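Annual report, structural modelling task.

Input specification for the orotidine-5'-monophosphate complex:
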Amino acid sequence: MSDATFGMGFGFGGVLGSALEAFGPLCVGIDPHDFLLEEWGLPSSAAGVREFGLRAVDAAAGRAGIVKPQVAFFERFGSAGYAALEEVLRAARTAGLITIADAKRGDIDTSLAGYTEAWLTPGSPLEADAVTINPFQGVGSLESAMEYAADNGKGIFVLAATSNPEAAGLQSARVASVTVSRAIIDGVSAFNAGRAGEGPIGSIGVVLGATVDFTALGVDVHTPHSPALPVLAPGFGHQGAKATDVRRLFGALAPFTLVSESRSLLQAGPRGLATAIDARAAELRAALG
Ligand SMILES: O=C(O)c1cc(=O)[nH]c(=O)n1[C@@H]1O[C@H](COP(=O)(O)O)[C@@H](O)[C@H]1O
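The model returned the following structure:
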């Protein structure tokens, strides 16, 4: 998806809103693990991840609104892996899918600008619609990246409360009077509020794992944000959370929560993936009413 203006507002928030309306919240993770490549009858090579990614895009197109290629599985093959990822991202965007490059980048602001340029510049070889960012160097270090994204009709998902169990100790620690997770969410929400004129849905979102104990992490899912805060939610499927629990888990944030699943869908194999996506999308439609 490349147009910056949609009925639900401008920029990435608007694009996301249209996709949620048309397809619901399912985000298909494209994670070519070696065990999946083997199950799909593909080699563990750049050619293998390229074929895997393109087949996953074909299966998702017209069935889900969003795909999230996991950059790590392409990066392990060096420049050939990156060439494969470029093709997969291009194919997905051409098919009308929103692409979230799961690259988990982060650095001081000037270096982060290089990463943002790589992933979020219209016309760049690795162009995606959004990228995941790790805020360990402080939410303040993300300011110019968030501005760059919003100025270019792009999005960012900032890790805030991640789905892996090892994260809770660090992310529940307190900065001033709130938890790290809460401080990150507040920082992102404040950025979106500063550009509230652009539409009802913000262009910068957060990653909140579906497996997380939000109370322990001081994350408030009951109060809506204005503009709405997009949430990328991994942790469904293989990591244990049930897609149909999205409303119970995410409360007021549920209407803007992307339900991300990788292995649990991809294990259906190249021939079963389209059916698995259809089934999960239908389950989510029923659960969200
Ligand atoms: O940013 C992510 O997508 C992410 C954040 C997080 O907190 N937990 C998490 O699992 N992820 C990613 O989401 C995907 C989860 O894959 P499955 O567990 O197979 O659905 C992987 O690509 C992870 O790197």
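The pocket of orotidine-5'-monophosphate is lined by residues 29, 31, 70, 102, 132, 162-164, 207, 209, 234, 237-239, 260-264 (CB under 6 Å).
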